[in-house]
């Protein structure tokens, strides 16, 4: 696998994941809207928004790795 | 008894909603980017047989769907190809414009003769 293709692969993963998360959020929003909220629109919008947000976060994590810094709390004894 | 019925209804609704969320979680729809991409691939692979089964169940005569080659579809590849095509077209555009102008001028001169 060529290293210059890595960015393209990350974009592909990001777009695929966005589609999946949007679909899942939409689906769960519809389920909750029908079951609990008397078929109002806002749970569907909320679910889609949450899905897009999760996808954005995953994409950000993917693009920033392996340079993403994780803080670690080291106890000095 | 109304209260009991309402509680029972709430329990049923809660179970359905909880089951939906659990199924989504179990299928990897709520996980990392890699899991989501794999879930999409699985769904794409499962789509043509499902459509086939559904159409045969409903009884519609559907000519074999054009084999959807989109399992290996790569948006980044398509984008890069598009950019290359546009840029190469732009790079030959001035030359082509000159050629067409010369031809057009010759055509007009021939008409006027």
From TrEMBL, chain A:
Xref: InterPro entries: Mic10 (IPR007512)
GO cellular component assignments: MICOS complex
Domain of life: Eukaryota
Locations listed in the record: Mitochondrion inner membrane
Chain segments annotated as transmembrane: 20-37
Membrane-topology annotation of the record: Single-pass membrane protein
Coiled coil segments of this chain: none
Alphabetically ordered keywords of this record: Membrane, Mitochondrion, Mitochondrion inner membrane, Transmembrane, Transmembrane helix
Keyword flag NAD: no
Subunit structure: Component of the mitochondrial contact site and cristae organizing system (MICOS) complex.
Protein role: Component of the MICOS complex, a large protein complex of the mitochondrial inner membrane that plays crucial roles in the maintenance of crista junctions, inner membrane architecture, and formation of contact sites to the outer membrane.
PANTHER family: MICOS COMPLEX SUBUNIT MIC10 (PTHR21304:SF0)
Family per similarity comment: Belongs to the MICOS complex subunit Mic10 family.
Protein name: MICOS complex subunit MIC10
Organism: Nyctibius bracteatus (Rufous potoo)
Automatic annotation (TrEMBL), chain B:
InterPro entries assigned: Mic13 (IPR026769)
Protein location: Mitochondrion inner membrane
Alphabetized UniProt keyword annotations: Membrane, Mitochondrion, Mitochondrion inner membrane, Transmembrane, Transmembrane helix
Keyword Mitochondrion recorded: yes
GO (cellular component) term, any one: mitochondrial crista junction
Membrane disposition: Single-pass membrane protein
Biological process (GO), any one: cristae formation
UniProt key word ATP-binding: no
Pfam families xref list: QIL1 (PF15884)
Function noted in UniProt: Component of the MICOS complex, a large protein complex of the mitochondrial inner membrane that plays crucial roles in the maintenance of crista junctions, inner membrane architecture, and formation of contact sites to the outer membrane.
Subunit record text: Component of the mitochondrial contact site and cristae organizing system (MICOS) complex.
Family indicated by similarity: Belongs to the MICOS complex subunit Mic13 family.
Name this polypeptide is given: MICOS complex subunit MIC13
Source species of the chain: Nyctibius bracteatus (Rufous potoo)
């Amino acid at each position: 696998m060529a290293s210059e293709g890595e960015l393209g692969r990350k974009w592909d993963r990001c777009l695929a994941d966005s589609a999946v998360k949007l679909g899942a959020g939409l689906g769960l929003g519809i389920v909750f809207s029908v079951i609990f909220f008397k078929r109002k629109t806002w749970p569907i919008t909320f679910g889609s928004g949450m899905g897009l947000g999760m996808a954005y976060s995953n994409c950000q994590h993917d693009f920033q790795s392996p340079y993403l810094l994780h803080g670690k709390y080291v106890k000095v004894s | 008894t109304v209260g009991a019925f309402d509680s029972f209804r709430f329990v049923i609704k809660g179970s359905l909603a909880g089951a939906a969320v659990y199924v989504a979680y179990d299928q990897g729809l709520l996980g990392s980017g890699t899991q989501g991409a794999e879930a999409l691939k699985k769904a794409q692979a499962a789509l043509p047989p499902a459509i086939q089964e559904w159409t045969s169940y409903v009884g519609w005569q559907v000519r074999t769907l054009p084999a959807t080659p989109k399992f290996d579809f790569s948006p980044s590849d398509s984008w890069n190809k598009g950019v290359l095509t546009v840029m190469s077209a732009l790079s030959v555009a001035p030359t082509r414009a000159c050629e067409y102008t010369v031809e057009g001028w010759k055509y007009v001169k021939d008409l006027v003769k």
